[in-house]
Amino acid sequence: MARRGSYAKGVARREEILESALDVIGRKGYQNASLKQIAELVGVTPAALLHYFGSKEELFTEVLRKRDEHDGMMPQTLNPVDGKSAFIDVIRHNTEVPGVVELFSRLSVDAVDPAHPAHQYFLERSEKLRESITDSFVHDAAHRATLDPDTMARVIQAVADGLQLQWMIDRSVDMPGIIGALMDVLYPPTDQPETPTR
Question: Where does this protein bind DNA (predicted)?
């Protein structure tokens, strides 16, 4: 019985660390969020922090998973209006947590290496996000896709990721507005004239 209680405490402590790290990174930014600051906020040493996660990269990968969980980033199939709205709401929320956006962008570059702790996270997240976008828009008689569903989802995802980089350099970039406009072009109402294709 003591072992089960010890396990539950460990899980609770791990969650506390993730919540604290997400808060520190969101407020102070990725570069300014040291293991020491996160550990102090939770009341442990940096070594104890690594006991739960193994490395800084693993901790930051789990922070991104926690962010996705909070944001409901992986919605189930929604109708197209709700799907578009939910996706844009997440992008709008990202403008309130620049440190998390920076963490996501930097870790996504590092995760190109298959040995990086975040590699699998980004593969799985990208696939789920594309499935979510596709499912949200593919069954709507009032609109028609100008591209095949997988290509459309990849374009939306690529533009969203690229806009985050532009926004980190220039905060006047209207990420939600641009993504909304792109979705309107890629998925216009059926009564609009067809976009010429080559």
Answer: 34-53
127 neighbors 135 (Cβ within 8 angstroms):
no
Query: Rounded to whole angstroms, how far apart are CA atoms 102 and 29?
Result: 7
Q: Amino acid identity, residue 141?
A: A
Task: State how far the Cα of 177 lies from the Cα of 185, in Å rounded to an integer.
Answer: 13
Residues near 112 by Cβ (< 8 Å), separated by ≥ 6? Answer: 119
- Would you give the DSSP letter of residue 187? S
CATH class of the 55-186 domain in this structure: mainly alpha
Model pLDDT for residues 46-80, shown as the tens digit of each residue: 898 888 998 889 999 999 999 988 876 544 445 55
Per-domain boundaries in the chain: 55-186
CA terminus-to-terminus distance, the chain: 68
Go through the chain and tell me how many residues it has.
Answer: 198
Q: List residues bridging with 143 in a β-sheet.
A: 189
For the stretch 39-48, pLDDT in tens is 888 788 889 8
Distance between CA atoms of residues 83 and 71, nearest Å: 14
Calculate the alpha carbon distances from 101 to 2, 31, 70 in Å.
Answer: 40, 12, 14
- How far apart, in whole angstroms, are the C-alpha atoms of residue 106 and residue 165? 10
Phi and psi for 189 in degrees, rounded to 5?
-60, 150
